[in-house]
Amino acid sequence: MKNLLVAAALVTAGLSAQAKDIVDTAVAAGNFKTLAAALQAAGLVDTLKGPGPFTVFAPTDAAFAKVPKADLDALLKDKAKLTAVLTYHVLSGKVMAKDVKAGSVKTVQGGSLTLATTGGVTVNGAKVTAADIAADNGVIHVVDTVLLPK
Question: Could you tell me the domains of the chain?
Fold first, then answer.
């Protein structure tokens, strides 16, 4: 019985050690270096490591590369604007791809995103290139474009 309890404790410890939040999951993927740096610059890392749940439409490094360098550099230096842009990519709650409904959804930033489901999921016209990347505090959907609030 004692060995069974020790084994159960080890399995439980192993499972909790493997659980990754949204930030750790994105960093481990390797193609979100610019997003990770932007989250750090905006002071949002702790928020997205929090309990959530969150749904994040995460732009890849290639998506950030589409933004003119001067614009991106200026954005990274303006914490308020950067925070607004990053939180515009986040929904409160966990929305899996199968649950996406076409229409408008409110972001953490306060603005709205337009979701479409014809020919795959799009967000404000940006394509979701990978969906349902699970994290222990939400889900990540990869987008091919940086979304800018209006």
Answer: 20-143 (2.30.180.10)
